[in-house]
Design brief:
By secondary structure, the protein is of the alpha+beta class. It contains seven helices and eight strands; from the N terminus they run H-H-E-E-H-E-E-H-E-H-E-E-H-H-E. The chain has a five-stranded antiparallel beta sheet. Strands 1-8-6 form a three-stranded antiparallel beta sheet, with helices on one face. Strand 3 and strand 4 form a beta hairpin. The longest helix has 32 residues.
Amino acid sequence: MKRKRIIAAALFAAGTLGLTACGSASSASSSASAAPAHATMEVVEEANAATAATVPTAPATPSVSVAAFGSSENTITVNSNEKVTVVPDIAQVVYSVQTQAKDAAGCQSKNSEDVNKVIEQLKALGIAEASIQTSDYYMYPIYDYSGNTQKITGYQATATLTVSGLPIDDLGNILTQSVSTGINNIQSITYQSSRYDSAYQEALKLAVGSAKTKALALAEAGECTIGSVANIVENSNYGEARYTDNALSSKMNASVTKEMLADTGANIMPGEMDVEVNITVEYFIQ
C-alpha cells in the first residue's frame, strides 16, 4: 500500500512537471505570437537601413536642356552667303638682303650693315619701326666643287624683312627706294584693306537680309508664315582679307635692280578684293 502511494505520488509529480513544461512552451509560443506589430516593423526598418548602407546610391539624372537650334519646334532653316568688295589700300612686302664675303664674320658684318641701311631708309619714308620685322636670317658657306675635293670659297648671308602697313599710293616709290638702298630680293607683296572690319559687318547684315528673303519664300511655298529668329550661326571664319600679288613678286624674286623695278611697272594696281561671309539662320514658323 505504501509502495502504491509512492508510485502514485511520483506519477502525479511527473504529470505536474509535464504540464508545467507544456505550459511554459505554450506560454512562450503565445508570447512570441502576441508580440506587438510595431516591434516587427522596427526590425524590418533596421534591416532595410542596413541594406541601404551597403548599396551605393545611384546619382540623380541631370536635367537636359535642348538648344533652340534643331529643336522640336516648327522651324525653317536657311543658309546665306554675301560679300562686299573693297579696294586694298595697304600692303605687306617681304624683302630680303643677300650679301657675300670671303669669311663668315665679314659676311655677317656686311649683311647687318646693308639691313640697317634699308631700315633707316624705310623709316625715312615714314614707315613706323613697329611695322618692320626681321622675320628670317641664315648664313651658309659657298663651296667650289671643281676638282676632286670641295672647297669653301666664301659665305652668303640672307636677312628677311617683313614690312607691314605700307600705303598703296606710295608703294611704288617705297619699292624703288628700298632697292636702291640695298634690297636685292622681293619675295612677296600682299595687299590688304583697312576697311576689312566695317566691310565684314556690312556683309553680315546683308547675309541676314538674304536669309530672311529665302525664309519668306519657303514659308509662302509651305503655306505658313515665319516668326522670330530662333538661332543664327556664323559659319565663315573672321580673318583679315588679303591676297598676294604673285605676278609682280615673281618678277622680282631674283636679284633686283632699279631698272628691273621700273620695267615691271612700279605703279601698283592692286585691283579689288571680296570680303565674304556665310551664315545659317533658323526661324520659327506659324
